[in-house]
Amino acid sequence: MRVAVAGAGEVAKYFVEEFLAASHTTVVLTRGTTNPWYTSRNDIELRKTDYTVSSLVTCLADVDVLVSAVLVVGAENANVQLRMIEACTKSERCKRFVPSEYLGQYEKLPEQPLFAAKDHLPVREALAKQTEVEYTLFGNGWLMDYIFPEAEQGKAVRFIRDIGPWYPIQFPKGKMIIPGTGDEKFATTCVRDVAKALAVLVKAEKWEKTIYIQGEETTFNKILQLLQKRGKKLDVSYVSVAEYEKMLANAAPDDFQTITLAQFGLWTPSGDLQLDQKKVKHHKERYFKELHFLSQGELLDLYDKTKAGKAV
Q1: Burial environment of residue 242 by CB neighbours within 10 A (0 to 12, 13 to 18, 19 or more)
Q2: Where would you tag: which of 6, 98, 135, 306 has the fewest CB atoms within 10 A of its CB?
C-alpha cells in the first residue's frame, strides 16, 4: 500500500511514523520543506508540489490513498483540499481521500467549530457531490496532546506545539480557564492514536462517510480533578457561554485574537465534540478492534516515563 501524506508539518510526523510502522510505503507531498526531520530520512519519499491539480495528479500517479495533514484555516488551504479532490477524480489510481478534518461530529453540528466552518464546509460539499473518490470525514474530538501543554510533557513523544491562548489549560501561566460549566462532555484522542487508526483505516475495504474514534470521553472538570490528583496547582476560573457570545458580538471585525478566543470558547459547550458513543463503539468494532486508544491518564503516564528516561 502506497500512502501519500499532504503536508510536512507537525501532525504529519505522527502519520509518517505510524504509516511506516504499518509497512505502508509513504510519500510526503510538500511545497519544498527544509525541515531535517523530513529531508534527512531515507524511508520516505518527498515529492514537491505547488498543489495545482496537474501537479497533484503527477504526484499521485502511483499512490493508493491520499491523507491530508494540511491545516485548513483560510480560503487558500481550503482551495488546496478542493484541488486534492479534483486530482483524485482525475487520477487513474488514487481514488481514496481523507481530508484534513480531525474535529468533532459532522452530521448534527456542521457549522462547528465556528473558526473553521467556512473553510471546511466547501470541502465537505464537494466530496458529497462527487462519486468517483471514496472518502471519510474522520472525527476524534479534542487532540488530547493539546490538553497537556509541551512544558508538562516528554518531548520525545510529542511533536505538536502548545496551542497557545486558545486552549483553556495554560501551565506556563498556572491558569485553567474553563468554558461553560466545565461539565459539558467531549471526546479526546491523542495524536498518535489518530495516526495509528488511519494506518489501519487505509487498508479497510469500505469506508463509511464519517468515522469516529476516541481515547476517552471527559469534561474539563474531570480534567481538573485529574491534574489536581497529580499535584498540579492551577488558578481556575470559568467563562460562561453568554460571556463568550457577548465577547464575539462586541469584537471588532478585524480583532482576530478576540474572535478566535470566543469561538474556541464556544466550541466545547456547543456539543460538537461530544461524539455519538454508539458510532464510536461501532467504528471501534468495525475498523479498530485490535487497537488500544490511550486514556488521558495513560498518556500522562507515558509522558512521565519519557521524562524520567525510562523506555516506553
Answers
A1: exposed
A2: 306
